[in-house]
Amino acid sequence: MSVVAALALTVVAVMAAADSPPAPPSPPLAPTPKPAASKLKGPDIYHIWLAGSQLAAGENPYERIMTGNMQENRKYPTHLPLIYLLVAGTRVLGVTEYDDFLGLWRAIVLVTQIGIGVLLFVACRRAGYPVLGVFAGLFWGLNRWTLYVAKIAQVDFLPILCLLGSLLLFDTRRRASLLLFGLSLAWKHIAVLAAPLYLVWTWRKASDPSARLREAAGAAGWIALVPGLLSLPFLAWNAEAFVRSILFSVTRNADSHVNAFSFDAQLGLTGVPARLPMLLLVALVLVAAARGEIGRYLAVLLVFATFMDFNTVFFLQYVAWTVPFLVLAALDRRP
């Protein structure tokens, strides 16, 4: 059954890729730090490619934000460096045109899309629910939000895959689990709101109550290892530009793909205060997890649902982060 699910995922992903809009024209090797207004158009993966191309040309893509502000979105590089390093590496290997890179990236998207379905099946089968595992794989691969992310070639599947792998390994291979979670953040740091959950779980599972603080601190260090090592060269290059770029997601103005703005936006809140309602609810999830009131998968689901429904910025690809956990939450407690 898992083979059938994987084949179905493959067919659907290829069909979604075929329906995607034509790619914008390729720019020069080193795009200017102040792109013209016309260059602000195009899918996010195009602007990620622009930033990686700039890095390959020896320029710091994060310095673009120094010419703007911390509220208006002008397609600044806001991810940690890993995705831009990947683009730069492909250019060094000879993939210099956007169309060629997009074809390579779509292959990565397809593989990770199938990989997530396989992990969902494995998680359910391990818990004794193989039929639910088949459902989980198909539900993930064929739902509209997954197909949407595949069509626009967003970067969400890689970090989701790493996150799921991390959760599956948490009980058996703790260090590998923490490193995988850090790798997820290095690709795209949406899951940073779930980072305190890892510390709560480590605290609760400590073999010796007197070692809880030490083990939680160690877990934080392992999580931060990969993102930290990747960030160090850019902090040395231009710390202000790097920090401002990463923090832009915290200070940017409200934005939404749909005409349904968040609670804070309707109150007229901006900047850090606009994130307080979301952070308050996430804190309640953490307390519930610390008290053992909710299981691991449900806790992650509630964190992502809170982010999706209360973050002042909402893009459709955010919904894909909740999809795997709609099924996995059923594994927290057997009837």
Features:
335 residues; mainly alpha; two-stranded parallel ribbon; 14 helices; 1% strand; disordered N terminus
Walkthrough of the structure:
- It is a single chain.
- The chain has helices spanning 2-18, 44-56, 82-92, 98-126, 130-142, 144-152, 157-169, 174-187, 195-205, 212-251, 263-267, 276-290, 296-310, 323-328; strands at residues 255-256, 313-314.
- The chain has 335 residues and is an all-alpha fold.
- It has one domain (2-331).
- The chain has a two-stranded parallel ribbon with strand order 1-2.
- Helix 1 runs antiparallel to helix 4 (98-126).
- The longest helix has 40 residues, at 212-251.
- Mean pLDDT is 88; it is low at 1-38.
The stretches of 5 or more residues where confidence is low (pLDDT under 50) are: 1-38
Order of helices and strands: HHHHHHHHHHEHHHEH
Tally of separate helices: 14
Gyration radius, to the nearest Å?
A: 20 Å
N-C termini distance: 24 Å
The assigned structural class equals mainly alpha
Mean pLDDT: 88
Number of strands: 2
What fraction of residues sit in β-strands? Answer: under 5%
Major sheet characteristics: 2 strands, parallel
Largest sheet, spatial ordering of strands: 1-2
Q: Helical residue percent?
A: 55-70%
Principal-axes shape call: globular
Summarize the structure.
By secondary structure, the protein is mostly helical.
Element layout with pairings:
Elements: H1 2-18, H2 44-56, H3 82-92, H4 98-126, H5 130-142, H6 144-152, H7 157-169, H8 174-187, H9 195-205, H10 212-251, E1 255-256, H11 263-267, H12 276-290, H13 296-310, E2 313-314, H14 323-328
